[in-house]
Amino acid sequence: MWDGIFPGLRPGLRSSEADLARAESELGFALPGSYRSFARECGAGRIGGHVRLFTPVPVEAGDLVARAHLIAHGIAVALDGLRSTSDEPHRFTMEGDADAELMERACFFGETARGDFLFFDVTPGFPEYDIWVLNADLENVHFGGADLPALARGLQGLEVLHILGEGAGPLPATFEGDDAKTLEALGTADA
Q1: Residues 6+ apart with CB under 8 A from 67
Q2: Other CB atoms within 10 Å distance of the CB of residue 92
């Protein structure tokens, strides 16, 4: 399936069933089916050279669990900083019929080159979780797709404007995977 979405597919470090089980145990919920398939077949890497996806892998810089916690912590710290400079509570601008608890159910699994964050709306009992994008401004939240294939296809067309917001252009239909060595180098650069 994924080579149909990414004709330029170059897999990265792929997740094993043990990696996926570990992530589900540590996160406390089942990973969506399309994401599990992606993690096994494509692995960690970038969609169109712009959107980096994290998967359960044994390298912390690319690991879903480590990055989900790191991103959530970074956002919480930034929001605390915003709260300290304003008497108003921080509010997210969410499109559509998203409910106020959406951000409380977020599990971050990717980021864009410009600093946007991709997350699952973890809703127990569903085989797939809606995908949303928190813009780098930490205010605007856009619907990304009903599953990972819908997100990937949307990023390749004009729907990208709806997903990533103004100024975004369609991404190439490529996936460039990262091997363990590349992921370790990313971890060193982040430190």
Answers
A1: 54, 61, 108, 109
A2: 15
Place 80 in a pLDDT band, splitting at 50, 70 and 90: confident
List, in order, residues 6 or more apart from 113 with CB less than 8 Å away.
49, 50, 51, 52
CB neighbours of residue 74 within 10 Å: 13
Query: What are 77's two structure tokens?
Result: 């710290």
Q: Return the SS3 of 58.
A: coil
Tally of CB atoms within 10 A around 98: 17
CA distances from 80 to 63, 88, 102, 183 (A): 26, 12, 18, 30
What phi and psi values does residue 147 have, to the nearest 5 degrees?
Answer: -160, 180
Looking at this protein, which amino acid is placed at residue 182?
A: T
Cα angle, residue 50 at apex, residues 44 and 120 outer, rounded to 5°: 60
Reference 126, options 144, 147, 112; nearest CA is 147
Looking at residue 119, the DSSP 8-state letter turns out to be E
Q: Which amino acid is at 68?
A: A
Query: What global pTM score does this model have?
Result: 0.93
List the alpha helices (DSSP H) in 60-117: 64-84
**For range 10-23, the mean pLDDT:** 98
Q: What is the mean pLDDT of residues 4-32?
A: 97
